Amino acid sequence: MRTKGGGPAGASRSRDGAQEGVNDEREPQFVPEKPRRSLDEVILPDAVRQRVELALDLVEHHTLLYDIWNLRSIDPYRRGTALNLYGPSGTGKSLCAEALAHRLGRPVINVDYAQIESKYVGETPKNIVRCFEVAREHGAVLVFDEADSILGSRLSRVSQSADHAVNVSRAVMLRQLDRFDGLVVFTTNFPRNYDAAFVRRILAHVRFELPDPETLHRLWQRLLPEALPRETGLDQGALAQESAGLAGGDLVNVITGAAAAAARRGGESGVVTAADLVAEIKNARRARAEVGRAPDPGMPADYTVRRLDSREVPPELRAPAVVEAEGAESPDAVTAEGAEPPDTAAPPAPAGSAGEAEA
Hints:
Helix content is 44%, strand content 7%. The protein has three domains: 180 residues, P-loop containing nucleotide triphosphate hydrolases (Rossmann fold, 3-Layer(aba) Sandwich), CATH 3.40.50.300; 78 residues, Helicase, Ruva Protein, domain 3 (Orthogonal Bundle); 35 residues, no CATH class. Helix 9 crosses helix 10, helix 9 packs across helix 11 and helix 11 packs across helix 12. A five-stranded parallel beta sheet has the order 2-3-4-1-5, with helices on both faces. It is of the alpha/beta class.
């Protein structure tokens, strides 16, 4: 009898598996990797670096703190250490998480939401357990990027099976954190989305901030490769002043864009100039202002989009009738191009219809 799918037996098993709904997805591979960056390579403001070093002390001196100095008497259930690195995008959170593993001399396992989330019932909790098992087996540091997707609030009103599955996954993550005796690092741009139970289990929260002028200067010194052709006398201090408000990740994009412009020119003029860098800095700043939206601290964690008031829209982008109406004695007489006066207009849509759809 032939097997391995090349004959009747293999084909039969394949058909049976399809009919029985066997999970045909490949199991996620949580692969320990050697950290490539050291903590010395991470350029951070002094205040942030001090908090990172303190968080590292909690890991390196765990035995002293809990066993010899008996902090276990007031914190008896903590076995490992969980850290949370949060703050604006591009400020070095993921890079720092890798560097922490490098300092500890351990491999790192990077986990994202797509790796553990599964469409099959019960598979997501299994994937969570699996990534902790692999980390325990290899003595690796677990890093969860975009952790707000994994540590989000549990649902108090369970109305369908998907809601129940979310709560089960959160409960499994909580148990694994309690049982894991290694280091787990979470990174996020949206810390307000965390469930309170996870916040309590995380031993140290480190806020990453946009670089100050001195840090920007050091970033420019570090990020410009020696092999990159550039005009002589490039003033990195002036570049630091020009790029105020940008993050290290933005500077990487700035340098890459300027290098591409130099490559396009080619020849003797194919060097990165201050003009190239300033142009890309302006593009990066414009993108931060116009593309995407950072969460407003005053808004609920699950609502970060709002409709603009008409007065916030530049005149050149508004309908002509709206602009004309601003100078009229009765600004409510015309509210949009082609709209009827209030007394004849159609009644407003009930709250929660159009507004919510647009949001």
